[in-house]
Design a protein that fits this description.
Length: about 220
Amino acid sequence: MSREDRGGAPGVPSARGAAVGRRIGIGLMYGLWRPRVLGAWRVPAAGPLILAVNHTHAVDGPLLMGTAPRPVHFLIKKEAFTGPLDPFLTGIGQIGVDRERADRDAITRALAVLGNGGVLGIFPEGTRGEGDFASLRSGLAYFALRSGAPVVPVAVLGTAGTRGRAIPALPPLRARVDVVFGEPFEAGDGSGRRTRAALDEATVLIRKRLTAHLDDARRSTGRA
Protein backbone atom coordinates (compact mmCIF):
# COMPACT_ATOMS: atom_id res chain seq x y z
CA MET A 1 0.00 0.00 0.00
CA SER A 2 1.43 3.38 -1.00
CA ARG A 3 1.84 6.31 1.35
CA GLU A 4 -1.01 8.09 -0.48
CA ASP A 5 -3.37 5.11 0.00
CA ARG A 6 -2.70 5.27 3.74
CA GLY A 7 -3.61 8.95 3.80
CA GLY A 8 -0.07 10.16 3.15
CA ALA A 9 2.16 12.68 4.83
CA PRO A 10 0.70 16.08 5.68
CA GLY A 11 -0.13 17.95 2.49
CA VAL A 12 -0.09 14.85 0.28
CA PRO A 13 -3.55 14.36 -1.27
CA SER A 14 -5.33 11.26 -0.01
CA ALA A 15 -6.17 8.54 -2.54
CA ARG A 16 -8.79 7.15 -0.18
CA GLY A 17 -10.28 10.62 0.09
CA ALA A 18 -10.46 10.89 -3.71
CA ALA A 19 -12.21 7.50 -3.81
CA VAL A 20 -14.80 8.83 -1.35
CA GLY A 21 -15.15 11.94 -3.51
CA ARG A 22 -15.80 9.74 -6.53
CA ARG A 23 -18.63 7.93 -4.72
CA ILE A 24 -20.15 11.26 -3.70
CA GLY A 25 -19.83 12.49 -7.29
CA ILE A 26 -21.54 9.39 -8.65
CA GLY A 27 -24.50 9.87 -6.31
CA LEU A 28 -24.88 13.57 -7.03
CA MET A 29 -24.31 13.57 -10.78
CA TYR A 30 -26.49 10.57 -11.58
CA GLY A 31 -29.12 11.79 -9.14
CA LEU A 32 -29.39 15.29 -10.63
CA TRP A 33 -28.69 14.71 -14.34
CA ARG A 34 -28.35 11.97 -16.94
CA PRO A 35 -24.63 11.70 -17.71
CA ARG A 36 -23.76 9.87 -20.92
CA VAL A 37 -20.18 8.66 -20.67
CA LEU A 38 -18.36 7.74 -23.87
CA GLY A 39 -14.86 6.31 -24.26
CA ALA A 40 -14.24 5.50 -20.59
CA TRP A 41 -12.53 2.31 -21.76
CA ARG A 42 -9.74 4.48 -23.16
CA VAL A 43 -8.66 5.54 -19.64
CA PRO A 44 -5.71 3.40 -18.49
CA ALA A 45 -6.76 1.26 -15.52
CA ALA A 46 -3.57 1.94 -13.57
CA GLY A 47 -0.55 4.22 -13.46
CA PRO A 48 -0.10 8.00 -13.39
CA LEU A 49 -2.51 9.88 -15.63
CA ILE A 50 -3.57 13.44 -16.41
CA LEU A 51 -7.16 14.20 -17.41
CA ALA A 52 -7.30 17.45 -19.42
CA VAL A 53 -10.85 18.79 -19.28
CA ASN A 54 -12.56 21.69 -21.04
CA HIS A 55 -14.33 24.02 -18.61
CA THR A 56 -17.54 26.01 -18.99
CA HIS A 57 -19.29 25.53 -15.63
CA ALA A 58 -18.41 25.01 -11.96
CA VAL A 59 -20.21 21.67 -12.08
CA ASP A 60 -17.64 20.23 -14.54
CA GLY A 61 -15.27 19.12 -11.77
CA PRO A 62 -17.86 17.24 -9.69
CA LEU A 63 -19.25 15.78 -12.91
CA LEU A 64 -15.84 14.35 -13.82
CA MET A 65 -15.34 13.02 -10.31
CA GLY A 66 -18.58 11.06 -10.66
CA THR A 67 -18.09 9.79 -14.21
CA ALA A 68 -14.35 9.07 -14.50
CA PRO A 69 -13.52 5.37 -14.10
CA ARG A 70 -10.82 6.21 -11.54
CA PRO A 71 -10.71 8.61 -8.56
CA VAL A 72 -9.45 12.06 -9.59
CA HIS A 73 -7.47 14.72 -7.73
CA PHE A 74 -8.37 18.06 -9.31
CA LEU A 75 -6.37 21.26 -9.21
CA ILE A 76 -8.99 23.76 -8.02
CA LYS A 77 -8.68 27.51 -7.52
CA LYS A 78 -7.81 28.30 -3.91
CA GLU A 79 -10.81 30.65 -3.62
CA ALA A 80 -13.06 27.58 -3.49
CA PHE A 81 -11.36 26.42 -0.29
CA THR A 82 -13.33 28.65 2.09
CA GLY A 83 -15.53 27.90 5.09
CA PRO A 84 -16.77 24.30 5.34
CA LEU A 85 -15.67 23.61 1.76
CA ASP A 86 -12.01 23.80 2.80
CA PRO A 87 -11.91 20.64 4.98
CA PHE A 88 -14.36 18.89 2.65
CA LEU A 89 -12.35 19.45 -0.54
CA THR A 90 -9.09 18.67 1.23
CA GLY A 91 -10.63 15.54 2.72
CA ILE A 92 -11.62 14.19 -0.69
CA GLY A 93 -8.11 14.67 -2.02
CA GLN A 94 -8.52 17.86 -4.05
CA ILE A 95 -5.72 20.41 -4.47
CA GLY A 96 -6.09 24.15 -4.00
CA VAL A 97 -3.95 26.29 -6.28
CA ASP A 98 -3.15 30.00 -6.41
CA ARG A 99 -3.68 30.93 -10.06
CA GLU A 100 -1.89 34.27 -9.69
CA ARG A 101 1.58 32.85 -9.05
CA ALA A 102 3.71 29.74 -9.36
CA ASP A 103 2.19 27.85 -6.43
CA ARG A 104 5.02 25.54 -5.40
CA ASP A 105 2.96 23.80 -2.72
CA ALA A 106 0.21 22.91 -5.20
CA ILE A 107 2.81 21.80 -7.75
CA THR A 108 4.47 19.53 -5.19
CA ARG A 109 1.16 17.94 -4.19
CA ALA A 110 0.07 17.47 -7.81
CA LEU A 111 3.37 15.77 -8.66
CA ALA A 112 2.95 13.58 -5.57
CA VAL A 113 -0.38 12.36 -6.95
CA LEU A 114 1.27 11.38 -10.23
CA GLY A 115 4.32 9.97 -8.47
CA ASN A 116 2.03 7.65 -6.51
CA GLY A 117 0.32 6.46 -9.70
CA GLY A 118 -2.82 8.56 -9.28
CA VAL A 119 -5.00 10.62 -11.60
CA LEU A 120 -4.57 14.39 -11.76
CA GLY A 121 -7.44 16.43 -13.21
CA ILE A 122 -6.61 19.76 -14.83
CA PHE A 123 -8.67 22.46 -16.53
CA PRO A 124 -5.87 23.62 -18.85
CA GLU A 125 -7.64 26.87 -19.76
CA GLY A 126 -7.09 27.93 -16.14
CA THR A 127 -10.65 29.16 -15.56
CA ARG A 128 -14.18 28.80 -16.87
CA GLY A 129 -14.61 30.18 -20.37
CA GLU A 130 -15.76 29.09 -23.79
CA GLY A 131 -14.55 25.56 -23.10
CA ASP A 132 -12.84 25.29 -26.49
CA PHE A 133 -9.21 24.96 -25.30
CA ALA A 134 -8.30 28.15 -27.22
CA SER A 135 -6.65 29.82 -24.22
CA LEU A 136 -4.50 26.89 -23.12
CA ARG A 137 -1.90 27.56 -20.43
CA SER A 138 1.45 25.81 -20.06
CA GLY A 139 0.72 24.21 -16.67
CA LEU A 140 -0.60 21.01 -18.20
CA ALA A 141 2.51 20.63 -20.37
CA TYR A 142 4.72 21.14 -17.31
CA PHE A 143 3.05 18.34 -15.36
CA ALA A 144 3.05 16.02 -18.38
CA LEU A 145 6.75 16.56 -19.10
CA ARG A 146 7.84 16.53 -15.46
CA SER A 147 5.95 13.33 -14.59
CA GLY A 148 5.97 11.51 -17.93
CA ALA A 149 2.29 10.72 -17.37
CA PRO A 150 0.06 10.30 -20.44
CA VAL A 151 -2.68 12.85 -21.07
CA VAL A 152 -6.29 11.87 -21.72
CA PRO A 153 -8.41 14.64 -23.28
CA VAL A 154 -11.92 14.93 -21.86
CA ALA A 155 -14.81 16.87 -23.40
CA VAL A 156 -17.69 17.86 -21.12
CA LEU A 157 -20.71 18.97 -23.17
CA GLY A 158 -24.08 20.22 -22.01
CA THR A 159 -23.10 22.12 -18.85
CA ALA A 160 -22.45 25.58 -20.37
CA GLY A 161 -24.61 28.19 -18.68
CA THR A 162 -26.23 31.27 -20.15
CA ARG A 163 -23.57 33.72 -21.31
CA GLY A 164 -23.40 37.03 -19.51
CA ARG A 165 -24.56 35.71 -16.15
CA ALA A 166 -22.20 36.15 -13.20
CA ILE A 167 -23.24 32.70 -11.95
CA PRO A 168 -24.22 30.49 -14.90
CA ALA A 169 -27.40 28.48 -14.41
CA LEU A 170 -27.10 24.79 -13.70
CA PRO A 171 -28.19 22.37 -16.42
CA PRO A 172 -31.91 21.56 -16.06
CA LEU A 173 -32.74 18.73 -13.68
CA ARG A 174 -32.40 15.33 -15.39
CA ALA A 175 -30.90 16.95 -18.49
CA ARG A 176 -28.42 14.91 -20.50
CA VAL A 177 -24.79 15.89 -20.18
CA ASP A 178 -22.05 14.21 -22.18
CA VAL A 179 -18.58 13.25 -20.97
CA VAL A 180 -16.30 11.98 -23.73
CA PHE A 181 -12.86 10.52 -22.99
CA GLY A 182 -10.26 10.54 -25.76
CA GLU A 183 -7.20 8.47 -26.56
CA PRO A 184 -4.25 8.90 -24.17
CA PHE A 185 -1.14 10.49 -25.64
CA GLU A 186 2.36 11.49 -24.61
CA ALA A 187 3.00 15.24 -24.54
CA GLY A 188 6.77 14.98 -24.85
CA ASP A 189 8.92 13.84 -27.76
CA GLY A 190 10.47 10.99 -25.81
CA SER A 191 13.73 12.83 -25.15
CA GLY A 192 12.87 13.72 -21.56
CA ARG A 193 13.65 17.40 -22.22
CA ARG A 194 12.00 19.90 -19.87
CA THR A 195 13.43 23.09 -21.37
CA ARG A 196 11.36 26.18 -22.21
CA ALA A 197 11.39 25.14 -25.85
CA ALA A 198 10.19 21.64 -24.95
CA LEU A 199 7.42 23.13 -22.82
CA ASP A 200 6.28 25.38 -25.67
CA GLU A 201 6.33 22.47 -28.14
CA ALA A 202 4.34 20.29 -25.76
CA THR A 203 1.79 23.05 -25.21
CA VAL A 204 1.23 23.38 -28.96
CA LEU A 205 0.86 19.60 -29.32
CA ILE A 206 -1.55 19.40 -26.40
CA ARG A 207 -3.70 22.23 -27.77
CA LYS A 208 -3.97 20.47 -31.14
CA ARG A 209 -4.87 17.13 -29.58
CA LEU A 210 -7.42 18.59 -27.16
CA THR A 211 -9.08 20.77 -29.82
CA ALA A 212 -9.30 17.82 -32.22
CA HIS A 213 -10.86 15.66 -29.51
CA LEU A 214 -13.40 18.35 -28.65
CA ASP A 215 -14.42 18.62 -32.32
CA ASP A 216 -14.78 14.83 -32.55
CA ALA A 217 -16.78 14.72 -29.30
CA ARG A 218 -19.21 17.38 -30.54
CA ARG A 219 -19.80 15.43 -33.74
CA SER A 220 -20.21 12.07 -32.01
CA THR A 221 -22.72 13.45 -29.50
CA GLY A 222 -24.66 15.53 -31.99
CA ARG A 223 -23.63 18.79 -30.33
CA ALA A 224 -21.58 20.09 -33.28
